[in-house]
Amino acid sequence: MLDVCLLGSGGMMPLPYRWLTALMTRFNGSSLLIDCGEGTQIAIKEKGWSFKPIDVICFTHYHGDHISGLPGLLLTMGNADRREPLTLIGPKGLERVVNSLRVIAPELPFPIKCVEIEGASQTFEMNGYRLKAFKVNHNVLCYGYTLEIDRAGKFDVERAKEQGVPQKYWSRLQKGESVEDGKLMTPDMVLGPPRKGIKLTYTTDTRPTDSIRENAKGSDLFICEGMYGEKEKAAKAVEYKHMTFYEAANLAKDAEVNELWLTHYSPSLTRPEEYMDEVRKIFPDAKPGKDKMSVELAFE
Ligand SMILES: [Zn+2]
Ligand SMILES: [Zn+2]
Predict the structure, then answer these.
(1) What is the pLDDT along the chain (300 residues), one digit of tens a residue?
(2) How far is the CA of 60 from the centre of ligand 1 (A)?
(3) 264 appears as a binding residue in the annotation
(4) Is 225 in contact with 243 (CB distance < 8 Å)?
(5) What ligand is nearest to the CA atom of residue 21?
(6) Keyword set for this entry (predicted)?
(7) Catalytic site residues?
(8) Ligand 1 centre and the CA of 112: distance in Å?
């Protein structure tokens, strides 16, 4: 089970009752945060989720509304007595940006490892999930992320017998271990075909791109920016390299996702709900993201 929380839904600046866009997930005791603007740590506190298990923080890009909350969060994690290493992932320049911000948070009780994303996309395997960063199209280098959790096939007794796998090894093989006893026995010898896993996609601060269409394909949940609900702001979205609600809805439709949450609203957009009837004509399973909106994604 993957717990997902959209911590905030604003773009550009935090507002009363609307924190900046950031995503937090919890899986198997390990938490992941994507983006950390001003006030993100308050949103985490309001949600009641713990700072201490945050093992990875990813950044889409280095605009202030996505990273200026980092030093404060690091200090809070230090105060929560975290000792385990923390991994930061982001576009090229991560180390320089983080070192600059850390002038005001120099002493922390845990080590930090910076991983700069290489090329158009990069995949990381960690903490039981697969995280993929893929390049999108903003006015600075920017990446979207997918998080996937695989699900192995069902245990197949007939297959295990056919392959002559002794029963005493069944449970180890089912857990994904390989066993050597006269011959090498691998999990695929006792398992049926892989079953559908869990997939989450998060993209913000970008124009619609093929990379989003391809990478978001079949997501259970697609969290996507929608800076403007007003149709007359389509040109503005192009100019500032953002999206309208309708562009996000078309991406969701093309990528055949299960559900779309909109986020990263312009501060001038006070009531995103007003535009949802039009959005749902394009993609029916669309919701206006709200601060601290969350869901548990489970295997089918
Ligand atoms: Zn932004
Ligand atoms: Zn931006």
Answers:
(1) 999 999 999 999 999 999 999 999 999 999 999 999 999 999 999 999 999 999 999 999 999 999 999 999 999 999 998 999 999 999 999 999 999 999 999 999 999 999 999 999 999 999 999 999 999 999 999 999 999 999 989 999 999 999 899 999 999 998 889 999 999 999 989 999 989 999 999 999 999 999 999 999 999 999 999 999 999 999 999 999 999 999 999 999 999 999 999 999 999 999 999 999 999 999 999 999 999 999 999 998
(2) 9
(3) yes
(4) yes
(5) 1
(6) Endonuclease, Hydrolase, Metal-binding, Nuclease, tRNA processing, Zinc
(7) 65
(8) 24
CB distance 40 to 58 below 8 Å: no
**Cα angle 86-106-62, degrees, rounded to a multiple of 5:** 65
d(CA 264, ligand 2 centre) in Å: 10
- CA–CA separation, 31 and 63 (whole Å): 23
CATH superfamily of 2-152+194-297: Ribonuclease Z/Hydroxyacylglutathione hydrolase-like (3.60.15.10)
Measured distance CA(5)–CA(22) in Å, rounded:
9
pTM for this predicted structure:
0.94
CA of 13 to the centre of ligand 2 (A): 11
Ligand closest to the CA atom of residue 143? 2
Cα(85) to centroid of ligand 1, in Å? Answer: 28
| Measured distance CA(198)–CA(54) in Å, rounded | 20
Integer Cα distance of 241 and 135 in angstroms: 14
Residue from 223, 270, 228, 206 nearest 6 by CA? 223
Q: Which two tokens stand for residue 226?
A: 């929608």
Domain with CATH 3.60.15.10 in the chain: 2-152+194-297
Helix (H, G, I), strand (E, B) or coil at 145: strand
Of 172, 122, 130, 167, the C-alpha closest to 151 is 130
58, two tokens: 């990813």
Rounded Cα distance between 277 and 59, Å, is 32
SS3 state at 65: helix
Residue 242 marked as a ligand binder: no
